[in-house]
Amino acid sequence: MSRTLFALSLFTLVSGSALAQGTPIRIGEINSYKAQPAFLEPYRKGWELAQEEVNRAGGINGRPLETVFRDDNANPSDAVRAAEELLTREKVALLSGTFLSNIGLAVGDFARQRRVLFVASEPLSDKITWGNGNAYTFRLRASTYMQTSMLVPEAAKLNKKRWGIVYPNYEYGQSAANSFKKLLIAAQPAGGVEFVEQAPPLGKIDAGAVVQALIDARVDAVFNVTFGTDLQKFVREGNTRGLFKDRPVVSLLSGEPEYLDPLKEETPSGWIVTGYPWQFVDTPEHKAFRDAYLAKYKDHPRLGSVVGYATVKSIAAMLKKANSTDVAKMQAAMKNLAVDSPFGRITWRAQDNQSTMGAFVGRLAQKDGRGIMVDWRYVDGKSVQPTDDEVKRLRRAP
User: Fold this and answer.
1) First vs last Cα of the chain: how many Å apart?
2) Are residues 248 and 235 in the same domain?
């Protein structure tokens, strides 16, 4: 290399390093880290990987990203207190995060009242961007309506009349159950459908009683919305008591590694699920993400990893576009913002502040004593979102 080129390269490296040494842009991140570690430990790893990449590339117009993390103790009141503290004491430019839907709604309402931007990464309730949607709240993940819309065509093909629905009795579970009933009735009007519901408290399922109630009710098929330890208990009792023998199951989230990996040899074969077959997705964008994640953490990504990573990349893209931390300018920058994610290009829709991130649909199977997804396909979120007219009817808040 010539001396001139060497000097130019050195100048570029030094300048690039200096670009990320300005005043940090602070993000306030609120989540149920202690209560939901299966999802949120990988989420934070994905978050930190993306933040490192952004800052290594020069930050946001010369300013590095910095995140102030807070645990909400799985409590909406604690989450709102954390949000207030992040704004007043930590001087964050925007809020992000939340896992449980009731907490996402509480922080979204706080954002509306305080007129601060809130990027809701994970809460799935339809109300986040529709019924309780507001101009300050934006959501990354596909909602319960969107993911249920991916599953209902498969459920309708089964042509079963009497469906058992099992869901945790809080906002997410209620939202998913309502979407499933509405969409299946519309998809299967000729034969008609009936529903038998079991709604245990989150984290406190009496799985034996729930499974036996479904057996006694003689359901023809099951729609499951439980996750985490509730799912493990439900699967164990269902296997033991024969609930899943010759009875199809359609299940939300059960193909996500966070919830699938712990099932191991108990994984029920044939369930139709949404999830994330991380080891099989070989698109260039996903392979680059997976390789970087494996190199940094010596562990495979979970769906939480993707969500954390894509949230930071979205915030970074918004801040670069806005070239400001002024709330109105950040709001404007989020409208129709296009972002490259591990699942491909996503767009943050202007009409409802909902991103078009999709999900994978497939079936559960076992391989070498572990659960995997087979026969999977990626469903783009934009294909299962309401029309503009429906959005206008659904969104009430200013």
Assistant:
1) 59
2) yes
How many domains does the chain fold into?
2
Asked if 254 and 331 sit in the same domain, the reply is: no
- Collapsed DSSP state (helix, strand, coil) of residue 375: strand
Q: Of 340, 357, 374, which residue constitutes the final position of a domain?
A: 357
| Phi and psi angles of residue 147, each rounded to the nearest 5 degrees, phi first | -70, -35
β-strands 359-367, 94-97: how paired?
Answer: unpaired
Domain limits for position 26? 3-142+281-357
Q: Taking residues 24-38, what's their average pLDDT?
A: 97
What H or E segment, with its residue span, contains residue 3?
helix 3-19
Interval 323-375: pLDDT, tens: 999 999 999 999 999 999 999 999 999 999 999 999 999 999 999 999 999 99
Shared domain check, 188 and 73 = no
How many other CB atoms are found less than 10 A from the CB of residue 170?
Answer: 17
User: What b/e readout covers 210-249, taking b as 16+ CB neighbours within 10 angstroms?
Assistant: bbebbeeeebbbbbbbbbbbbbbbbbebbbeeebbeebbb
Q: Are residue 184 and residue 133 in the same domain, yes or no?
A: no
Q: Are strands 370-379 and 359-367 parallel, antiparallel or unpaired?
A: antiparallel
pTM above 0.85, yes or no: yes
Taking 3-state DSSP, the helix, strand and coil percentages for the chain, each rounded to the nearest 5, stand at 45, 20, 35
Residue 197 placed within a domain: yes
